[in-house]
């Protein structure tokens, strides 16, 4: 019997101190393609994304620009929300951590952890990384700096904060991370397991309002606000209506369903360790699977606002279109390792695989059908999807799924070159028409496989087949 349990899929929440970049766009379209695939397979899906809107960096940026904090985050949240149309995303909710319902959820999980005895207050002195908005352990430092922000000196801070007893969950986290199905890829799971096994220190989870006042208030303490990570991580369940769950979404998708989270590799500590420990403390089910991906590098360098080499997804859409942007990210960005991208490589992939590949194939086949077939071909009956394709999605390797589709495209091109139905039709008309019908049916099957990756292209090809018409150019040449 096929498992049809509900599926919950979420991205991380981008920090709204800068415009959207291609790295997060990849995470979005990856999650969207998986959500669309699982809907095709008959699952009820809840797909979540949103924005992380509290913390020191945002407060400082808003103050520098002399904009009220809420106005500042509203402006940036809107830029991320508009990616829904730009990238043709099918998410079910866009959660904002400045929303009242999220604040209630964050304060509720705080109280649950506190009532469990896992939150206490103490004075603390340590090195603080503003970039990650967290205190650093001695063995975190690389040449005296945070490994994620090597060009910024950590700041020594001493103040009284609330702490979460992360150390209480070392054994449970080791058990969680010892399960190889919990995180993909294996390297990131092992890194998290080694980090936990080295010994966990309790985590500072609040900031004094005298130093930072842009955050969710700590319950029953007017002098403290929540540490941005403790606040933001709760979005994964606040988006489902937790703790009230009036509509039953939390019970259906988080408790009874299968939960999947996508995250960048720099998120391993936060998602695999801190968030899972919070869930353990609050007696809530842990995330079933976390899929980590590498970074997209621009011009051989990791993208960085300070380097000025960040690629905007809106610029890609303007140049290539929505469907091609989805294709370029999903087929040509490695699912777990870092990927180098340049404008030259993007142009090459677009021209070779979309203009001269898929677009040219569909145009040639449908032009032959339009001229030589008296009526549209019979739509192929739905059959089980090929194992190569379903296995790729099961392993969250959408690059592999795309490779399989383009293998089929290549085979159709070879068949046309070998059998030459456009010539044969003048000699053996019926035999040529049979070949053309078979080619059209194969085009329709390819369209089905494209659905999660390029949903609009799927629709256009299907409509062309059923109308027996050559579609208008799917992909325009870059020099036009």
Mean pLDDT over the residues: 93
CA(first)-CA(last) distance: 52 Å
CATH class category of the largest domain? Alpha Beta
Spatial strand sequence of the major β-sheet: 3-2-1-11-12-7
- What's the name of the CATH homologous superfamily of the largest domain? HUPs
Number of strands: 15
Considering the chains and any ligands shown, give keywords for the structure.
Rossmann fold; alpha/beta; 48% helix; 4-stranded antiparallel beta sheet; Isoleucyl-tRNA Synthetase, Domain 1; 14% strand; elongated; 480 residues; 2 domains
Can you describe this structure?
It is a single chain. By secondary structure, the chain is α/β, with parallel strands linked by helices. The protein folds into two domains: 7-293, HUPs (Rossmann fold), CATH 3.40.50.620; 343-467, Isoleucyl-tRNA Synthetase, Domain 1 (Orthogonal Bundle). The protein has 19 helices and 15 strands. It has helices at 22-40, 56-64, 69-81, 83-86, 100-115, 170-178, 186-197, 228-233, 235-238, 249-255, 268-281, 313-320, 322-332, 343-372, 387-394, 398-419, 421-424, 429-450, 455-467; strands spanning 7-10, 45-51, 93-96, 119-129, 134-135, 155-164, 183-184, 203-204, 206-208, 224-226, 258-264, 289-293, 296-298, 301-302, 339-341. The strands form four sheets. The protein has a six-stranded parallel β-sheet, sandwiched between helices. A four-stranded antiparallel β-sheet has the order 5-4-6-8. The longest helix is centred in the last third of the chain and has 30 residues, at 343-372. The protein is elongated and about 90 Å long. The model has no long low-confidence stretch (mean pLDDT 93).
């Amino acid at each position: 019997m096929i498992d049809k349990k509900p599926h919950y899929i979420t991205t991380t929440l981008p920090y709204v101190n800068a415009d959207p970049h291609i790295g997060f766009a990849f995470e979005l379209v990856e999650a969207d393609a998986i959500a669309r695939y699982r809907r095709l397979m008959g699952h009820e899906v809840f797909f979540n994304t949103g924005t992380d809107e509290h913390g020191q960096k945002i407060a400082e940026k808003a103050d520098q620009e002399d904009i009220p904090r809420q106005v500042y985050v509203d402006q940036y949240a809107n830029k991320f929300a508009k990616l829904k149309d730009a990238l043709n995303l099918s998410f079910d909710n866009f959660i904002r951590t400045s929303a009242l319902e999220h604040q209630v959820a964050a304060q509720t999980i705080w109280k649950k952890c506190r009532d469990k005895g896992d939150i206490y207050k103490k004075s603390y002195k340590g090195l603080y990384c503003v970039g990650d908005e967290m205190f650093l352990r001695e063995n975190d430092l690389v040449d005296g700096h945070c490994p994620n922000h090597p060009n910024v000196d950590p700041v020594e801070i001493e103040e009284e904060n609330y702490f979460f007893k992360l150390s209480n969950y070392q054994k449970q986290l080791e058990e969680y991370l010892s399960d190889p199905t919990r995180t993909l890829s294996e390297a990131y799971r092992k890194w998290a397991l080694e980090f936990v096994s080295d010994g966990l220190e309790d985590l500072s989870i609040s900031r004094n309002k005298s130093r930072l006042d842009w955050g969710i208030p700590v319950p029953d303490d007017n002098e403290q606000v929540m540490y941005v990570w403790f606040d933001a991580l709760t979005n994964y369940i606040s988006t489902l209506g937790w703790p009230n769950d009036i509509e039953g979404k939390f019970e259906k998708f988080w408790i009874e369903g299968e939960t999947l989270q996508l995250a960048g590799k720099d998120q391993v500590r936060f998602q695999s360790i801190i968030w899972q420990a919070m869930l353990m403390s609050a007696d809530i089910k842990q995330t079933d699977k976390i899929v980590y991906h590498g970074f997209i590098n621009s011009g051989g360098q990791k993208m960085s606002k300070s380097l000025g080499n960040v690629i905007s997804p809106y610029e890609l859409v303007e140049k290539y279109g929505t469907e091609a942007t989805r294709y370029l990210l999903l087929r040509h960005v490695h699912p777990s390792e870092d990927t180098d991208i340049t404008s030259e490589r993007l142009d090459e992939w677009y021209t070779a695989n979309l203009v001269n590949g898929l677009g040219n194939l569909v145009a040639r086949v449908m032009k032959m059908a339009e001229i030589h077939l008296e009526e549209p071909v019979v739509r192929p009956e739905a059959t089980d999807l090929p194992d190569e394709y379903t296995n790729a999605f099961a392993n969250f390797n959408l690059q592999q799924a795309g490779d399989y589709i383009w293998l089929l495209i290549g085979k159709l091109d070879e068949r046309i070159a070998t059998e030459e139905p456009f010539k044969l039709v003048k000699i053996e008309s019926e035999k040529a028409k049979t070949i053309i019908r078979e080619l059209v049916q194969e085009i329709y099957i390819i369209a089905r496989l494209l659905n999660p990756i390029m949903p609009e292209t799927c629709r256009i090809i299907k409509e062309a087949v059923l109308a027996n018409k050559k579609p208008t150019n799917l992909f325009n040449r870059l020099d036009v």
